[in-house]
Predict the structure.
Amino acid sequence: MNGYRLVGLALGLLLGVWGLVIGCRQPETASEEGVSAEPISLTDEEFARAKQLFFNYCAGCHGTTRRGATGPHLLPEAPEGSPYPGTRQLGTAAIKAFITSGTPGGMPDWGRQGILSEEEIDLLARFLQLPPPPIPPMNLADMRSSWKVHVPVEERPTRPQHNRNWRNFFGVVLRDAGKVAIIDGDTKELLSVINTGFAVHILRSSASGRYFYSIGRDGKVTLIDLWMDPPALVAEIKGAYDARSVDVSKYRGRRGNFIDRYAILGAYNPPHFVILDGLTLEPLKIIRTSGYDVNEGLFYDEARVASIVASHHDPLWVVNVKETGEVWLVDYAGVAAGKVKIDVLNAEQFLHDGGWDHTKRYFLVAANNKNKIVVVDVQEKEVEAIVETGIRPHPGRGANFYNPTYGNLWATGHLGDNTIALIATDPGPNQWKVVKKLELPGVGGGTLFIKTHPKSRHLWVDRTLNNDPELQRTIYVFDTETLELVKELKIPESIPQARAVHLEFNQNGDEVWVSAWGRKDDPSTNAILIYDDRTLELKQIIQGDWLITPTGKFNVYNTANDIY
Amino acid sequence: MNGYRLVGLALGLLLGVWGLVIGCRQPETASEEGVSAEPISLTDEEFARAKQLFFNYCAGCHGTTRRGATGPHLLPEAPEGSPYPGTRQLGTAAIKAFITSGTPGGMPDWGRQGILSEEEIDLLARFLQLPPPPIPPMNLADMRSSWKVHVPVEERPTRPQHNRNWRNFFGVVLRDAGKVAIIDGDTKELLSVINTGFAVHILRSSASGRYFYSIGRDGKVTLIDLWMDPPALVAEIKGAYDARSVDVSKYRGRRGNFIDRYAILGAYNPPHFVILDGLTLEPLKIIRTSGYDVNEGLFYDEARVASIVASHHDPLWVVNVKETGEVWLVDYAGVAAGKVKIDVLNAEQFLHDGGWDHTKRYFLVAANNKNKIVVVDVQEKEVEAIVETGIRPHPGRGANFYNPTYGNLWATGHLGDNTIALIATDPGPNQWKVVKKLELPGVGGGTLFIKTHPKSRHLWVDRTLNNDPELQRTIYVFDTETLELVKELKIPESIPQARAVHLEFNQNGDEVWVSAWGRKDDPSTNAILIYDDRTLELKQIIQGDWLITPTGKFNVYNTANDIY
């Protein structure tokens, strides 16, 4: 009974703070009564396993040093001023309950989903009550020792070695297989499956579209040449222990031609970014992002690069630093001359991901812990607005479309509620206001991605992290003119145990590819579903032994041109 | 005997690497044979004392985390690739010998000078064989809690409350007294002695000259209002645990009027800089300087702000990061709007101090461990040149003068040799070349400061850190036209046990003030010596019970206008 009371208290605490009161919340008594006296010890082997489990499942939201970010801190003793109790106060039973059942606020139900076993959850619950292990540094020499150029630039083709429409290729992340599949978007043929390393997070296309860059959770960047037949890995480097973002130089103009010239790796740990040669991945410059947050001025050694986008109008990247809430505009025009120019803008905590408005002058990024979207005027290099949208916005890169009533809109879904917020982007009295919220039927949020295309009149929405297994399998399609929900699409029953995640249009904007993200040990639970955007009918299912845990899909043309 | 052999080996190692071989150097055998097996232990009280001694005497050159900078690392085990042995390999006897006797390379002879006792040296020698203690963070709240505005802006006078020529006031650092004296440069009267905290490193004048800012080794900035009668402390803040630099905003022009608007504190530890309100010292923005060095790409958490200068032509500060060898040009025009723009330039390790050329377009800074001066073109925001000058250049801010043969020159002395290097600054084939070296008589360097003035034809040079007590007391005067040594001046014998350190002209450029830096427990060993710059005769000696350990002296007009 005591365990359950603690769980109730702890859940109450968490939910209370997250704005979703479900009764029985008594933070003061919890922190006084709830101190656990149980001794905690792990063997070296258990500690190493727990550390890896933590890295795989927890560090993204809670931080490697467990100081908290999207999720609360997970330190043995609560830091001063934190509304969350220490893990020693929660105790093993309560922590296990959280990991097993998740929370409506966005914590996944790792146990109920069967992703973590009871034994693993017990291990994690004990690990979390010990102090976090320190993060080792990573120097340039470490990166260089991992750097491999498989095909030197001079040995690469000077024109495509096939007659395919490579601008409509899709790169598909096969997350738990540690691979990326290249699929011809015209013919739907699988062209290549490339080893990329652990849990690729995203792909980015070079400005020309010729190259794909992958970034793995393990900090490895790979470079894939789509002109080769078949497309092949031409270079790789490990630039971090934990990473989420990669992008490329996209500017050509008065200040130089940087098409396919540089790449940038944005790391969680160590907290830094690395500027790479775009054609070889040679590391050129490392910049640390540790700093002081914009609100309390607390020092975060672990100030992680949450996301990066490349400007089309200036030679710069927008680098979003999660913990400090700073947006760094990183000008790369001087890299060859040994200089990097950075505009550090105070924005909001904790920054996550985002995308351009339709003019590509403004970048909109989620400060998800504050339920806000920050609008950065990248041309004027200043924060233009900060907009409250809903509970924990998760835009991916968001979606841009024109609506007859509201003009040009940029949209985001939410992890923590069932709404899509539409922000007006045209100059005028409504600019940077939420002019409309679209509602998803049913309880809770869980939306990871939304997507549209200039040639489509549909806004596509997933709900991958909803707690309801049925809603996890559902895709929602709204009409961008009427703003009505026009269709709910479900993963066919022939593909069991899968969640629907991530949507991508083809180059022409008349097809939408959706991942059915299943179990890594059973190909039949995985698929790519291809829908006709005009009829909203399922027109093709791609499956295969190679198709394991597909997540993100990246169309070359749309990715290179930031079409979403 | 074994102890002496080790000392010989260790000295040989150090000197070999520093380029001054004195026989018997056998690094390979030393690292194999020299491993000490003696057990090391300190009581908590001993450890705390040793830590403070290390902070006071060693951390400046070796770093708080003891990874090395101007001096070698002092870690128990040598880092990979380091030419210096670990302190455990050196052992207690060898380390004690170094601390007692110093090295010709620049390590002071703390024992022989009587600054550290035998017992303190023994304590340090043991402390250095244990791992360095971690550096705690310092958050904005810590700074705010130390922040005091003694006289609010609205209660300060709107015009000077005295009829003195305050632009010729001198601020004199009374280092070990923890005070700053304000002296009227016209009348030589002592106006005020102000408590500033531990070991003030420098003063800077606000752009108007009205205010002095002090920065202490303890990270405390004080603000002194010279319009008050007497001049008084009006605000203070502790923005670090260890610091060396402070400067002000000096720009007025198209991009705004920043006269007396901001100050900046450059810290050693934590490694950051803090932008402060110039009139209240309120902390506005903290930026971490941890990073990766420009040569090997090694990560330095302790990447310390070595020095800062303010541009007169642009709204920016030049922030020199010691360990990484990066020069950061920090644009402050957007601070009020929540943005800071930083140009990160790859320069050279390990950066120390420097000053403007006569046009104030170029900033010249010592990379003292590489025996080089880096020339930064602050207008074009790039490294213009890197010039080898001599062994461990220590320019202070250097000295600018016109010579009929070589044109405009910028000069630096050296810690490690007896030369003054003259670098041509005018455009042409000789620009940024060492066109001439002036030699100081006698063995060894030890020069900390050199100084001249546009109205003087003399270049003044100290030799404070020379190992020879007689040379420590000597000031050298060169003719800037003939480049001949025209006079050697010695501290009068009536002031025993003092070293000559730091030279400062008065506003008119016809007087030079020199510190006789003596013992903190005996005022008679301390003085300010005032020389007539035309006759080179000693015209006045300032002494007093208040005049304890004078070091830097800062004339308001010359400091505000960067005249040196």
Notes: Residues 21 and 513 of chain B are 38 Å apart (CA to CA).
